[in-house]
């Protein structure tokens, strides 16, 4: 059986060999394909868009984006057949997401309605640092009628050249990985600084960031003019005023915020009351960024390391006042109709020593309930 099968396969192979040997190419007429476009020598008219982006909003980066726009405007004007449609520039925007990249998204829409034939940009990382976004945009532009190509000037690669598909894909992956590594480096730098008592210090009403002679280092130094507003906010809340009432009072007094304006809201008052730095402590790591691609910060509920230090700088209000306000805020959150939460302990009967649990007393901890119960048991 095996011998007959082998013989059949050999016979089939021999037929194929005869067909190939007897093929007569002289009878075939070859019709050449249309000559493919050579991007670097083509001079046909093109409506060209320039895309420029920098990821931070500093003075140095402003210089960079102005330089990019000037350079590529001249670049287009020197190229025969090219006409500059518009320069699309995103300043202070990350390339890991298409969100908030208003100029980029406007450019893509203009491509879709036929205003643009070609996009010129500095490099793959300037165009996108998210591999999925990069691939989807390349596919979308290539599918347009007519197709829109992207020329990456540093890499000297043109997106509509099929030979460039692999190197462009590889470069997009590298750009994304570079952003991930940069994000990890920033997180590590944050952790190292916090572990050594160096915390990020955003502008804070009541303080200036200056040289602290007491601790002989740069840090938070009380600004007495602003501190008066902070003390007033805590005093009013402790005496029963709501955050909305406090905001209205500050507006009428024309008290200034840290930004220098005179517009207060209940939310801005609450932010003052909840910030532990007002009593000299620091809690770093209240939020964290799970995904480097979208840079979205979320509340840290134990997923990321936090750092806490008391007596880090001079306090504006006392620790006891801060903790009292914290209890009041928590009690108000659970619908308490009194400014200070109360515990009621059963003093008689079979439930003697038991404390009724009610959401209005949500500010109390388990230790608070145990302590209250213990008072009755000692009688």
List the defining traits of the structure above:
single chain, 379 residues, alpha/beta, two-stranded antiparallel ribbon
Write a compact overview of the structure shown.
With 379 residues, this protein is of the alpha/beta class. Helix content is 42%, strand content 13%. A 5-stranded mixed β-sheet has the order 2-1-3-4-5, sandwiched between helices. A two-stranded antiparallel ribbon has the order 6-7. A two-stranded antiparallel sheet has the order 8-11.
List the helices and strands and how they pair.
Elements: H1 2-21, E1 46-54, H2 59-78, E2 82-91, H3 102-112, E3 118-121, H4 124-127, H5 131-143, E4 149-152, E5 157-158, H6 165-195, E6 207-212, E7 217-222, H7 224-238, H8 243-253, H9 266-274, E8 282-284, E9 287-288, E10 298-299, E11 307-309, H10 319-333, H11 366-377
Parallel strand pairs: 1-2, 1-3, 3-4
Antiparallel strand pairs: 4-5, 6-7, 8-11, 9-10
């Amino acid at each position: 059986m095996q011998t007959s099968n082998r013989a059949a396969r050999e016979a089939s192979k021999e037929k194929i060999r005869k067909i190939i040997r007897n093929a007569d190419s002289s009878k075939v007429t070859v019709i050449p394909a249309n000559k493919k476009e050579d991007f670097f020598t083509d001079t046909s008219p093109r409506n060209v868009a320039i895309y420029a982006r920098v990821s931070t909003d500093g003075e140095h980066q402003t210089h960079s984006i102005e330089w990019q726009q000037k350079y590529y405007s001249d670049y287009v004007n020197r190229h025969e057949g090219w006409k500059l449609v518009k320069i699309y520039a995103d300043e202070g925007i990350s390339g890991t997401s298409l969100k908030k990249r208003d100029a980029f998204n406007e450019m893509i829409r203009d491509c879709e309605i036929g205003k643009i034939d070609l996009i010129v940009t500095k490099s793959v990382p300037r165009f996108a640092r998210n591999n999925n976004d990069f691939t989807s945009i390349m596919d979308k532009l290539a599918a347009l009628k007519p197709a829109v190509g992207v020329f990456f000037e540093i890499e000297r690669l043109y997106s509509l050249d099929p030979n460039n598909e692999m190197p462009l894909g590889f470069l997009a992956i590298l750009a994304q990985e570079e952003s991930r590594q940069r994000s990890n480096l920033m997180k590590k730098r944050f952790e190292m600084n916090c572990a050594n008592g160096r915390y990020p210090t955003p502008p804070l009403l009541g303080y200036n960031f200056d040289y602290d002679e007491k601790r002989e280092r740069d840090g938070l130094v009380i600004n007495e003019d602003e501190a008066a507003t902070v003390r007033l906010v805590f005093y009013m809340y402790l005496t029963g005023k709501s955050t909305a009432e406090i905001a209205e009072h500050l507006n009428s007094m024309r008290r200034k915020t840290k930004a220098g304006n005179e517009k207060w809201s209940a939310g801005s008052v609450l932010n003052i009351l909840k910030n532990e730095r007002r009593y000299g402590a620091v809690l770093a790591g209240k939020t964290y960024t799970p995904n480097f691609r979208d840079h979205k910060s979320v509340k840290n509920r134990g997923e990321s390391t936090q750092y806490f230090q008391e007596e880090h700088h001079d306090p504006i209000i006392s620790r006891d006042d801060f903790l009292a306000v914290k209890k009041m805020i928590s009690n108000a959150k659970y619908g308490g109709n009194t400014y200070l939460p109360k515990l009621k302990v059963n003093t008689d009967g079979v439930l003697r020593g038991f404390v009724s649990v009610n959401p209005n007393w949500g500010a109390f901890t388990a230790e608070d309930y145990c302590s209250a119960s213990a008072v009755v048991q000692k009688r």
